[in-house]
């Protein structure tokens, strides 16, 4: 299954709407049982489901045409209305109707801005007539899009602390110096590949599992519950292993539908906020919310950055580390060899936000780019991109390096022929030292790469 996602929030919401309608239509037969628990909804196959297939093709094409100044909702070309559908094949009809529906996204955006209930009512009546020869599922998806679009334009319910000692969790074993932490990025697709990755992690019996964010396509309640929470709790057996703690960070896709579904999810995981400190007596993992300021791609916002209150909270943890080593976690990257930030490889906004934190940081793991990158020390930190948790990346996709001065280790993912492998990280803590192991889903027993963090904070390859 080749799920395709884009970073345009409006097109992502449209993908969510179409996916939800398609999944609910197939709910009686398109289910999957995991470990003997009640059946779970399976994400429709983007290749074999006609509606999802059409929406995917149209969205990907629209995203390629769009720019930050011209979001995808404005860049979809209207197909002709006077087409004799009886002359077309089944998928051609679906593609045509999908194009008609997608072209309505701009009208819905304008209607929402007008807030005129009479105009909205007249629009839906005209829409039903326009789409009358098409599958009514497209009109249903547009109604769902309107619902999500409206919610997405509300205020994200970001949670501020009331005291600087809030959101600190001593959920690592406190009676021993050892702990095993599993970290995975961009996992929330709900597809078999994602389930397989998590099953491998579960078999390694981690004390804690951390997801670096992004539940696709736009973090709706339907997606959060069916494509993340249900599989997450079933596969990790959280109902029978309450001692196993888990967390999920805020990615940009998690905020596209307004963020409320994400916060309902973190409440289910007993995670108080979108940022937190997980610690034992030797280590602290500081998770940040970089998704809050990356949900609007209109071109009016700089690369993502942190809330001032969160910066103060992070600095407080470093100042009161009491000898603990600090590992940073986020969805977004500080720097990239592939993507640019206002013309350079470093997100200077994040770097400035963390100028008092980076000197004390041992390592920083992030996702966002669907790749695995092990960097030499750069911009003052050992950066690790592990966004290869579940989203398929074709082996023929262009992964050319744009910034050759960003030092990459020669540790590259293998391929299955069509796609790059997925993977995850296991960090084994042993007192003030740690071994970081990088696994591909093609071999869960032998890590493709390992490195050691010494007691003095130095990082070296394990030969």
What's the layout of helices and strands?
Elements: H1 9-25, E1 31-32, E2 40-41, H2 50-65, H3 90-102, H4 105-114, H5 117-130, H6 137-152, E3 168-169, E4 178-184, H7 192-203, E5 208-211, H8 221-235, E6 245-248, H9 252-255, H10 260-268, E7 276-279, E8 283-287, H11 308-319, E9 325-329, H12 348-353, E10 361-366, E11 372-374, E12 383-386, E13 423-430, E14 433-440, E15 449-453, E16 459-461
Parallel strand pairs: 3-7, 4-5, 5-6, 8-9, 9-10, 10-12
Antiparallel strand pairs: 1-2, 4-13, 7-8, 11-12, 13-14, 14-15, 15-16
Helix pairs in contact: 1-2, 1-6, 2-3, 3-6, 4-6, 8-10
Overview of the molecule:
- With 463 residues, this protein is of the alpha/beta class.
- Helix content is 31%, strand content 16%.
- The protein contains twelve helices and 16 strands.
- Strands 3-7-8-9-10-12-11 form a seven-stranded mixed beta sheet, covered by helices on one side. A seven-stranded mixed beta sheet has the order 6-5-4-13-14-15-16, with no helix packed on it.
- Helix 1 runs antiparallel to helix 2, helix 3 packs parallel to helix 6 and helix 8 runs parallel beside helix 10.
């Amino acid at each position: 299954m080749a799920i395709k996602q884009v970073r345009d929030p409006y097109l992502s919401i449209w993908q969510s709407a179409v996916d939800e309608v398609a999944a609910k239509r197939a709910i009686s037969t398109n289910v999957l049982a995991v470990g003997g628990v009640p059946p779970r909804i399976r994400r429709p196959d983007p290749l074999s489901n006609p509606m999802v297939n059409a929406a995917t093709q149209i969205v990907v094409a629209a995203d390629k045409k769009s720019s930050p100044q011209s979001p995808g909702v404005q860049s979809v070309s209207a197909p002709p209305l006077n087409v004799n559908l009886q002359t077309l094949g089944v998928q051609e009809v679906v593609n045509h109707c999908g194009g008609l529906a997608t072209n309505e996204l701009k009208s819905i955006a304008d209607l929402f801005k007008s807030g005129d209930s009479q105009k909205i009512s007249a629009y839906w009546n005209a829409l039903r007539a326009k789409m009358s020869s098409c599958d009514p599922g497209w009109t249903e998806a547009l109604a769902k899009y309107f619902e999500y679009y409206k919610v997405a334009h509300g205020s994200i319910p970001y949670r501020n602390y009331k005291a600087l000692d809030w959101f600190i969790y001593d959920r690592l074993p406190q009676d021993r110096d050892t702990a095993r932490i599993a970290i995975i990025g961009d996992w929330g697709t709900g597809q078999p590949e994602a389930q397989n990755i998590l099953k491998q992690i579960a078999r390694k019996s981690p004390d804690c599992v951390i997801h670096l964010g992004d539940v696709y396509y736009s973090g709706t309640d339907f997606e959060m519950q069916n494509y993340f929470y249900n599989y997450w709790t079933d596969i990790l057996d959280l109902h029978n292993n309450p001692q196993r703690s888990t967390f999920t960070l805020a990615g940009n896709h998690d905020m596209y539908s307004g963020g409320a579904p994400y916060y309902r999810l973190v409440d289910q995981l007993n995670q108080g906020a979108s940022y937190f400190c997980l610690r034992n007596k030797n280590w602290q993992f500081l998770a940040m919310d970089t998704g809050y300021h990356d949900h609007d791609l209109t071109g009016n916002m700089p690369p993502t950055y942190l809330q001032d209150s969160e910066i103060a909270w992070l600095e407080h943890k470093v100042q009161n580390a009491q000898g603990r080593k600090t590992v940073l976690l986020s969805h977004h990257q500080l720097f990239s060899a592939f993507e640019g930030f206002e013309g350079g490889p470093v997100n200077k906004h994040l770097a400035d936000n963390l100028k008092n934190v980076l000197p004390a940081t041992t390592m920083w793991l992030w996702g966002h780019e669907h790749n695995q990158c092990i960097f030499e020390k750069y911009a003052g930190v050992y950066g690790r991109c592990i966004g290869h948790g579940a989203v398929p990346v074709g082996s023929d996709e262009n992964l050319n390096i744009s910034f050759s001065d960003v030092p990459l280790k020669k540790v590259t993912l293998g391929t299955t022929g069509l796609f790059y492998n997925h993977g995850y990280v296991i960090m084994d803590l042993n007192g003030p030292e740690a071994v970081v192991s990088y696994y591909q889903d093609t071999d869960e027993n032998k890590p493709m790469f390992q490195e050691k963090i010494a007691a003095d904070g130095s990082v070296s390859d394990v030969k």
